[in-house]
Amino acid sequence: MIRRMTRSLGAKSRAGLCLFGMLAAACLCGCGLAGDSDLEKPYSFEERPFAVEESSQTAKEDFSAVPLFARDLCVVSDETAFDGTEVDAEAGVLFSISDGQVLYSKNAFERLYPASTTKIMTALIAVKYGNPDDTVTVTQDAVITEAGATLADIKPGDVLTMEQLLYGLMLPSGNDAGAAIAVHMAGSIENFAQLMNEEALRLGATNTHFVNPHGLHDENHYTTAYDLYLIFNEALKYPKFREVTKTVAYTADYKDKDGNAVKKTWEGGNWYLTGREETPDGITVFSGKTGTTQAAGCCLVMASRENSGSESGGNEYVSIVMKAKDRNKLYDNMTNIISKIVN
């Protein structure tokens, strides 16, 4: 419904379209799964706060509320003000989440494949609606055999907590952990993807569509750099998300299907956090998620802050690079972007 309405406003600027989507999405609910009562934890229509019919009418009639809704968000209005030669990846942005400034933007609204940066949304839903202490039994859905897929190496019948699965999702970028979270929370991969899309619309990410919780390639699974900012910005509001995504290594102790003890150590892939890539002076990287597929190229969504010397820290920033040619280029591009924070 939101997509149909935004297409009908062709005369509006990109920024206006995005803000309209945010307003409408703020009042939107999705389709429910009321008929799936046999699922362990089906996603319920009744739990959504607003009705679709009411939301669409509100969105059409009340454009006056757009500035209020977007007050704390970064709004891209003119990308020609930035030198695109600094980033040879397909898209890149740098936004201050402390004061809403746009410090850099290139192709922020271009529809691209997100690869494993998808897992930011999966983690957001897990920390926002789930319980980290839940016990999860891994199902057959976690068996992923696609060549090149990154895994936490969990097996059907393994019993872990949701918190452990979050670390398995975000550090080794476990597609299997993503599937386990999805089935536990929504009963199936398809139902969880529906929940992801509803959450994306609620956040104003109207150029995003998910079909799975991990980002393995599908033509119908896409987003934009700006939409990833909206999703990541929301996720950063949750301390558990920050805790997981700043971690360099994590050891999980759990049981397999036969009750035997299993111990696995997972390591993160953000080169700034691991020390493989030097962070520009005056900046601390404290959160992020990488993603790579052949179709998506190399992607990185990241949060950093200025080193202020105070306990509360300096201003915080979200930076995103999408579809870099390789991993070295990805970090070259990201360094060029985040260097603008202190230069």
Write a structural description.
This protein is α+β, with helices and mostly antiparallel strands and 343 residues long. 33% of the residues lie in helices and 18% in strands. It contains twelve helices and nine strands. It has helices at residues 2-7, 14-26, 52-61, 66-69, 119-129, 162-170, 175-186, 189-202, 225-235, 239-245, 271-274, 327-338, and strands at residues 91-96, 102-106, 135-137, 159-161, 249-255, 261-267, 283-293, 297-306, 316-324. The strands form three sheets. It has a five-stranded antiparallel beta sheet with strand order 2-1-9-8-7, with helices on both faces. A hairpin with a 3-residue loop joins strand 7 (283-293) and strand 8 (297-306). It is globular and about 60 Å long. It starts with a helix and ends in a 5-residue tail after the last helix.
